[in-house]
Design brief:
alpha+beta; 9-stranded antiparallel sheet; 11 helices; 14 strands; globular
Length: about 400
């Protein structure tokens, strides 16, 4: 992978842009390819010019029609400067992990090892079941598909109270049981299984436990094998503090929430299924693309199940560990994460967009996604018009 360092002078300020040009695809680079790459670079430089509180941004774009497999990073790896942020920097992906968890569960479904309508009491240890029952839950009525779609009624432990606890004691180590107990202490069920939608990290830490119980492996090992990290070439993705840092990883970026630096926040705050993975923009884009191109599931019907799982009347566009967005009439599928990470794939234009803004309280990754889609779509439309001889 070739790394190019460019310096942009914009509004009187210098920005370091680290770019990666994919050389794996056999295709012909054209002016449209270069135009797309320049458009993405300019997008990132402009965001940093408008908000000096953002340490850095990393983004990866994959669109084969433009021979585009391109990563760009702007800014620095930390608030105090230091080395420029590069496309090879890894970062905590937080709730983007949920898509990996959902895929792992659905792979077990493909293999006939679970059924989506099985009650979660079939798989959770008795201690978990007893805790849920004591707080008014019906684990015998809560199905796996309820956990996947946030329609189980499970209270969200990772709300404002939890955030305050983390900021007060960022080095505290949490267990999965600690977080389940916290959910039970903080609030009652949102409703009966399937009655309403409410986002719940707690539901996903239960799915993480189910993965361990069914496979006999750690959640990290189960995800790695069921998703197929090695087969897909996700060599910059791993479960923090549980797996060794892959040899291919060069550095991990600092990420910020207010004054809190991710380096100072113990990974156990978000390690058990609601989050837990570290990755790069490239790996996230390749995973999302692989998911929609038949490289992850053995059967296309499994992806259809993932994208069509509607249970509660107020569920909106969330499905099983993934949700849909619209950008100027084009549908994309993906997820975002607490630390301002994002991954989306747009089947209509075969475009994957993924990355991270390393400050949570800044422009959202969803906004960058929208702008990237508009850049690429415009170039695709111009290219198509030129090739067909149509007037622009």
């Amino acid at each position: 992978m070739k790394i190019i360092i460019r310096t942009f002078l914009l509004f009187g300020m210098a920005f370091f842009i680290s770019c990666s040009k994919g050389g794996e695809r056999e295709c012909e680079r054209t002016f449209a390819t270069v135009e797309a790459e320049a458009g993405i670079d300019t997008l990132l430089a402009g965001v940093l010019a408008r908000d000096s509180t953002i340490p850095g941004i990393s983004i990866y774009i994959d669109q084969p029609g433009l021979c585009l497999s391109y990563g760009s990073a702007a800014g620095f790896e930390g608030m105090t400067g230091g080395a420029p942020l590069t496309v090879d920097h890894a970062f905590r992906i937080a709730s983007n992990t949920k898509t990996f968890i959902a895929v792992s569960i659905l792979r077990l479904f493909e293999e006939g090892k679970i059924r989506l309508d099985d009650p979660i009491s079939h798989y959770l240890p008795p201690l978990y079941v007893d805790m849920l029952v004591a707080d008014g839950y019906r684990p015998d009525m809560m199905r796996i598909r309820h956990l996947l779609t946030h329609t189980s009624g499970m209270y969200e432990h990772a709300g404002e109270e939890y955030t305050e606890m983390i900021l007060d004691d960022p080095g505290r180590k949490w267990s999965r049981l600690d977080q389940l107990k916290l959910a039970i202490e903080l609030g009652a069920p949102y409703g009966g299984p399937g009655e309403r939608w409410h986002y719940s990290d707690t539901g996903y830490i239960l799915l993480g436990k189910i993965l361990e119980e069914v496979t006999g492996k750690t959640m990290a090992g189960a995800m790695r094998d069921l998703v197929g990290f090695d087969r897909l070439g996700l060599d910059h993705t791993w479960t923090e503090s549980v797996e060794a840092v892959p040899a291919a990883v060069g550095a991990i970026a600092h990420q910020y929430f207010g004054d809190a630096d991710s380096y100072d926040v113990d990974p156990s705050i978000d390690l058990y299924g609601g989050g837990g993975l570290i990755s790069t923009a490239r790996d996230l884009a390749l995973f999302e693309k692989a998911l929609f191109s038949g490289q992850v599931y053995k059967q296309k019907s499994t992806l259809d199940t993932m994208l069509s799982m509607v249970i509660a009347p107020d569920q909106g566009t969330y499905r099983a560990g993934i949700w849909s967005i619209e950008v100027d009439g084009i549908t994309g599928w993906g997820h975002t994460g607490f630390w301002n990470t994002f991954t989306f794939y747009f089947p209509e234009i075969d475009l994957a967009v993924a990355g991270a803004v390393t400050r949570r309280n800044a422009v959202k990754g969803r906004v960058l996604t929208d702008e990237a889609v508009r850049i690429i779509r415009g170039i695709l439309e111009k290219k198509g018009a030129e090739e067909s001889g149509r007037p622009l």
